[in-house]
Amino acid sequence: MSNQSHKPHVFLNMAMSLDGKISTRDGTGPRFTGSADKVRLREIRTRADAILVGAGTIFADDPTFTEDGIYKDERVKRGLSPQPIKVVVSGTGSVPESALMFQPNGAPALVFTTKRIPANRLKILDSVADDVHIVGDEAVDFPQIVEILARTYGVKNLLIEGGGQVNFAMFREHLIDEIYLTLSPRIIGGRDVPTPVGGAGFNFIDLIELELLDHHVVGSEIFLHYRVCS
Ligand SMILES: NC(=O)c1ccc[n+]([C@@H]2O[C@H](COP(=O)([O-])OP(=O)(O)OC[C@H]3O[C@@H](n4cnc5c(N)ncnc54)[C@H](OP(=O)(O)O)[C@@H]3O)[C@@H](O)[C@H]2O)c1
Q: Does residue 3 form part of some domain?
């Protein structure tokens, strides 16, 4: 742990169907993408000191965040820890204690929650997480999360992996610097199937502007990389 407090570089990675969905009707998450996307996800993770998701993503996808093989080696070559710090945002503490992210893998598992968390949930999550931080009354304070990750855990590169609610909150606070988006040649449909950015949405005057930095195509899948213009 270190005492750095400058804002980390924050990058977001998501995969989306051609009609703008990030999961399927039956809740299978980003499984709809091809093998090149799975490789790109692992490569992007090799640059992250920490990976942050919302409780909804833990419920839906239950990621381990554990890297192995060439991806673990690449992290070490870059001077990062072998495994990224695992971070979940859960305002009510609903994130299940059985989640794979809480299984020890050498990296800390952190929970950011609010004063709304019931005492019993706080106690349970305290027993499975390395640290539980209360950062807000009703909603979590995302700038404070980023600040704590930098100051207390030395995070310089923070990867956001959804879901839509967390992504919206991060954009609203202007905390995201870069976006990696995979456009998958699939139609999923469904009014209630989540999209990359949920929440309340932005008014015209507040739209987030992006600049395309790079793109490439593998088969019918398109890989996009944007910078967020401030
Ligand atoms: N295609 C992809 O690349 C991809 C990637 C990731 C996820 N996904 C999909 O995205 C879906 C999940 O997205 P989602 O939007 O439903 O959930 P989410 O953003 O992952 O998590 C939402 C939860 O996070 C907590 N949270 C978020 N913002 C908060 C705030 N401001 N204050 C306090 N707590 C806050 C709350 O937890 P509590 O309820 O505990 O308070 C909330 O219920 C799943 O279907 C998943 O498969 C797709």
A: no
Q: Is residue 69 included in any domain, yes or no?
A: yes
Residues 141-172: pLDDT tens digits?
999 999 999 999 999 999 999 999 999 999 99
Domain that holds residue 138: 9-229
Secondary structure of residue 99 in the 3-state scheme: coil
Does some domain include residue 119?
yes
Distance separating alpha carbons of residues 87 and 106, to the nearest angstrom:
14
Q: Which atom of ligand 1 is nearest to the CA of 32?
A: 1
CB 189 within 8 A of CB 21: yes
- The CATH number of the domain holding residue 221 is 3.40.430.10
Tell me the backbone φ, ψ of residue 100, rounded to 5 degrees: -60, -25
Q: Is 162 touching ligand 1 by the criterion CB < 6 Å?
A: yes
Asked if 152 and 127 count as a contact pair (C-beta separation under 8 A), the reply is: no
CB 67 near ligand 1, within 6 Å:
no
CA angle, residues 58, 223, 189, in degrees to nearest 5: 60
How far is the centre of ligand 1, averaged over its atoms, from the C-alpha of 198 (Å)? 9
Residue matched to tokens 């609903």:
94
Say if 2 falls within a structural domain. no
Q: Which of 92, 121, 166 to mutate to test the pocket of ligand 1 (most atoms within 8 A of CB)?
A: 166
The reply to whether the predicted model has a pTM over 0.70 is yes
Which residues have CB under 8 Å from 88's CB, separation 6+? 52, 53, 54, 55, 58, 95, 99, 101, 109, 110, 111, 112
Domain count for the chain, please give it. 1
